[in-house]
Structures are given as C-alpha cells and as structure tokens.
C-alpha cells in the first residue's frame, strides 16, 4: 500500500512538471539588423592609423563580425562620392567576412569625395523591409564635401522608420600624410598637410536626430581599445520626432531609392572585377 501511494505521488509530481514545461514558452529575441557604412574616400589611405585608415577599419569590423550574436544580421555599404551596397543584409559570417575583405576596393572605383546623404539612403534601403531593431553605423574620417540629396530628408526617413544612426570617426589632431598626386604607374604620392577638423555639428545632428551617438578617435590605440560591441548594444537615446513627410517628398524618396538601386547595379560590375 505504501509502495502504491509513493508511486501515485511520483506520477502526480511528474505530470505537474510536464504541465509546467508546456506553459513555459521560449523567450523571443528580436533580430538586430545593422548596416555598416564604411568610408572609401582617398583620405582613408592616410598612414596615421598604421598601416592606413581603411585597413585599421577593416580590423575593427572583422572583430565585430566574428563576435556577432546569433540574432544579429549585417549589411555593408561602402561610400566615397557615391555609395555601393557591398553586402546585403545577412547573418552569414563567411559571407560578411568575404565582403569585408573587399572593403577597400571602392577607393579607386567610386566618385572621389565624401557623400553622407547618398550613403544614408543606401543603408536605409538595406534595412527598410526588416522587422526587429535597426541600426546604421557610419565609419568615416572626414566631413561631407559632396551632396547628392538633402541629408535632412535621409534623417527624417531614418527616424520615421525607427532606424538609429551611430558614428565612429577617426581623424588626426595636428598634421597627417595625405594622398596628393598619382604617378604614371598609378602609385599614390603622399604629402604632409594640416589635419582638417571633423564636422562635429553634422555628425552630432546625424546621430542625435535618430537616437544614436558618436565617438571620435585620434589614434589607432584608442580605436582598437574601443568596445564597439558594447557601443552598439547600448540602449538608444530618445530620438527627435520625425517630421511628417509631405506627399511630394514621398514621391521624391521613391525616386531617390530607384537611383540608389541603379547605382548599386552599375557598380556591382566594377566590384566583381
């Protein structure tokens, strides 16, 4: 009788455990979609961040991708005077690392200059149909000197789509060796020039209006010690309310994204060579 009572008690406890297991649902972790916007202007060849700025940025981004979480997907956009979607949004580490290996290819293939507005629209396009959290990280060394579109339109579109923009800026404090001329063999010659100050007002505007933040680095040591994984994981700041976009601007946005796609299609041939 005692054995029967013990068996009954054991069965009841076991059934209760199974019932509780059915009640516990797995926690849903939202996907994090992140567009990496990487400067490919000629100044990224400056050797102050040894061996140069673009190679150093590649090291940072490789480290970020290798340590990415399972729920994180990345796209990669390179830019100079225009921009190119180097890698569409994916969780595949191998695909991303293969794209990072080509990060410096745009330096001699794209229009010279630095164009933030074109780049922001290309980044938004790579994220706009995705659910979950969406962020863009602008990696740059300078200030905008070309403008395809009003950057305020890009900021309003990003804020309206709840896309946060962060920025990582590298620059020299005093003087720096910059590309100046190219010889007949295609070798770039460098000259020592006074470092231009970054456009903090524009960078702050780009990030703050979308709830993001930015960091400025003057040495490779500072940059390599920076915890970028923690930086992108921090809770976003409250963004300013996006302005209501007039219907005429919606039409303009549609045309802009069509132009961005055409540029991506044309540059794809150059990047595959």
UniProtKB/TrEMBL annotation:
Signal peptide residues on this chain, from the entry's feature table: none
SUPFAM superfamilies: vWA-like
Residues covered by the VWFA domain: 33-170
Pfam families reported in the protein's UniProt record: VWA_2
InterPro entries, per the entry: VWF_A, vWFA_dom_sf
Domain of life: Bacteria
Protein name: VWFA domain-containing protein
Species per Swiss-Prot/TrEMBL record: Chryseobacterium hagamense
């Amino acid at each position: 009788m005692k054995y029967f009572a013990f068996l009954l008690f054991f069965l009841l406890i076991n059934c209760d455990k199974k019932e509780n297991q059915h009640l516990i649902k797995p926690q849903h972790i939202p996907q994090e979609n992140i567009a990496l916007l990487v400067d490919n202007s000629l100044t990224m060849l400056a050797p102050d961040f040894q061996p140069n700025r673009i190679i150093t940025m590649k090291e940072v981004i490789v480290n970020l991708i290798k340590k990415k979480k399972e729920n994180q997907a990345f796209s990669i956009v390179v830019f100079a005077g225009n921009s190119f979607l180097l890698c569409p949004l994916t969780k595949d580490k191998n695909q991303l690392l293969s794209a990072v290996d080509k990060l410096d290819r745009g330096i001699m293939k794209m229009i010279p200059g630095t164009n933030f507005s074109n780049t922001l629209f290309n980044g938004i396009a790579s994220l706009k149909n995705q659910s979950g959290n969406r962020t863009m990280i602008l990696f740059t060394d300078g200030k905008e000197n070309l403008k395809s579109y009003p950057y305020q339109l890009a900021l309003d579109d990003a804020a309206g789509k709840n896309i946060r923009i962060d920025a990582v800026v590298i620059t020299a404090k005093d003087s720096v060796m910059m590309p100046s001329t190219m010889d007949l063999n295609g070798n770039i010659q460098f000259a020592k020039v006074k470092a231009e100050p970054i456009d903090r007002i524009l960078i702050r505007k780009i990030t703050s209006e979308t709830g993001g933040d930015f960091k400025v680095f003057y040495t490779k040591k500072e940059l390599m010690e920076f915890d970028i994984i923690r930086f992108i994981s921090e809770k976003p700041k409250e963004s300013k309310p996006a302005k209501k976009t007039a219907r005429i601007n919606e039409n303009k946005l549609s045309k802009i994204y069509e132009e961005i796609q055409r540029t991506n299609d044309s540059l794809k041939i150059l990047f595959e060579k």
